[in-house]
Amino acid sequence: MGGLMGMMDGGMGGMMGGMMGAMLGVMLQFGQVYIWITGAVMAALQIAALAALVKLVQNNVALMLAVDPVCKMKVNPRTALSAAYQGTSYYFCAPSCKHLFGKDPERYLSSTTGAPMQ
Predict the structure, then answer these.
(1) Taking the CB of residue 43, how many other CB atoms lie within 10 A of it?
(2) What pLDDT digit, counting tens, does each position of 85-102 carry?
(3) Would you say 82 and 92 are in contact if contact means Cβ atoms under 8 Å apart?
(4) Selection from 82, 104, 84 nearest residue 93 by Cα
(5) 3-state class of 96 per DSSP?
(6) Percent of the chain topping pLDDT 70
């Protein structure tokens, strides 16, 4: 019961406190076999949580950003507004930047490109 409460509480501190409470309850009631079972289940949950965290970090690190040529803001090419000019795609943070670029693209291309950057 303590392990369940710790998981519901959230966070590493809650999980560790819940694990200690669960192990204490098991030791008092059932003996050594259940201590190992509880430890194995909690270790598996921690490994699964860490694997999910690693995957999340990898996805965000791998995200390539583009620079809005008008305001120089970094934008996600998957969700940003875009326009093609001379065979290259450029990405924008807002409709106003896209509009300004459309009026005079050469003015904004002298200092940056809209290609994704790391």
Answers:
(1) 11
(2) 999 999 999 999 999 999
(3) yes
(4) 82
(5) helix
(6) 68
